[in-house]
Amino acid sequence: MRKLGILVTIITLGLILAACGGGTTATPPPPPQTVPPATTPPVATPPTPPQTPPAPTIDAKALYGSKCAACHGANREGVTGLGPSLRPSDHEKHTVAELAEIISKGRAGTAMPPFGGSLSTAEIDAMANFIKNVAP
After folding, report:
1. What is the pLDDT of residues 101-118, one digit of tens each?
2. Of 41, 50, 82, 93, which has the most beta carbons under 10 Å away?
């Protein structure tokens, strides 16, 4: 009887181990497959154009003070015997282009010298606009 009890115990243990999977080595489940997130293809960034420095602002009032005031007066009122008034009201008949030409080439037979050799075109244009459009 004792042999029968041992046999029943061994069979029972065998069944328990088989039912629980203890008798075989289980393979781990494969890792979950992940799908990489959808990516947008990289967008080519256009090259940045070289930055050009901004054109310097011309201070026409300061330019007038250094180049014109000695003959035309500090307030553009004119100096008798040297230069006429350079107020906008005194130059209504002139266009900005005509004033720029006078500044650039001077006036023959007067004390007005040509500034085309010492001032840039931008400076001459700024001065012509200043005379034509800015009240003292």
Report:
1. 999 999 999 999 999 999
2. 82
Mean pLDDT of 86-96: 92
Which is nearest to 67 in space by CA: 22, 27, 126, 109? 126
DSSP-assigned letters across all residues of 47-111: PPPPPPPPPPPP-HHHHHHHHTHHHH-TTS--BTTTB----GGGGTTS-HHHHHHHHHH--TTSS
Domain that holds residue 86: 60-133
Task: Note whether residue 34 is domain-resident.
Answer: no
Give the pLDDT confidence score for residue 72 in this predicted structure. Answer: 94
pTM: 0.59
Quote the number of domains for the chain: 1
Distance of alpha carbon 99 from the chain centroid: 35
pLDDT of 35 over the 80 cut: no
> Is residue 85 in some structural domain?
yes
